[in-house]
Amino acid sequence: MSIRLAAALASLALAACAQQAPALPTAPLPAGPAIAITATPVPLNPADPSQQIIRDGVLVVFADGEPGDPATPPQMEFRYAGGLALSSADTARFHGLSDMAVRNGVDLTAISDEGDLLKARLMLDKTGRLVGLEGARISALPGLDGKPLQGKLESDSEGMALLASGDMLISFEQRHRIWLYPADGSPPREAPAPDASFPANGGMEALGPAPDLGPDVYLAGGETSGQTWTCRLSAGCTAGPVIAKPPEFGLVAVTRLPQGRTAWLLRAWDPVRGNRVILTVQDAQGAEVGRLDLARPLTIDNFEAVAAVPAKDGAVRFYLLSDDNFQSSQRTLLLAFDWTPARS
Prior knowledge:
This protein is 7% helix and 45% strand. The protein has helices at residues 2-20, 152-155; strands at residues 34-35, 38-41, 51-55, 58-61, 77-87, 97-103, 107-112, 116-124, 130-140, 157-162, 168-172, 177-181, 189-190, 206-209, 217-221, 227-232, 236-242, 250-256, 262-270, 274-282, 288-294, 303-310, 316-322, 332-339.
């Protein structure tokens, strides 16, 4: 009797273990760098989804296609062109996106502050509004030895400059430096960087190409100081202007525009007001010619990246991308805004 009881108890224990085993996938899961990205539309203002324009920092209600106020200069208007909350169930690495570039109007390249490289295509509807991402692939950035970067001190990639040659420059925090990643996929090498000291978590977050100044020219900016530099692969870095900003804001991204204009992205956060963002567009003399302010109650998060897509008619499409810091309380947001500069 005791033998039969022991056998029965053993069978029950095995059944309990079987019930606790995780269920097998119902469909094949992707292997390798390809991932599917879920893109959930987000309004400009969750409290009033009809709001589509920010003018001089003030929200304006316009139906699609309704013209702006002719008394307001067009460079003071930013029209919302769609926004997405992004996520992926295929990988735990789709987080922490810290800078990006957009080529050919739709080809997105982004980096994360954990040393990952993301490539995807933007999906636009018939009216040009942002509606999704497709063809996404994610991979690890290699170090000088060709092996994937390891540890936060080595892999904290924050700024990116995609040169016309296809070569890519990446700036790192913690151990501050700029590396050049050749377009042919060979291992990276050191690139000229400013001769300056930076806080551990406040380095060269702003990095972007300046093709109008030369094929090997790029701009760098210090997050805390707002100090900028113009650098050349062939000649090193020279100090440029200090970007005027409120002391609580950090300089986190830069993109060059036609006619010598430059767009700088500034970011601030505190527990009372939350995230705040300023996109300031400046002319060649440093005068502000356009400005976008984002704060509550608008859709807002930790925006650290900006990319620009100029149109043939002179308008510019700006994309802003947020870094969720691998935190469930934050989101990866990609927002699009259209801006028309004043005619020169």
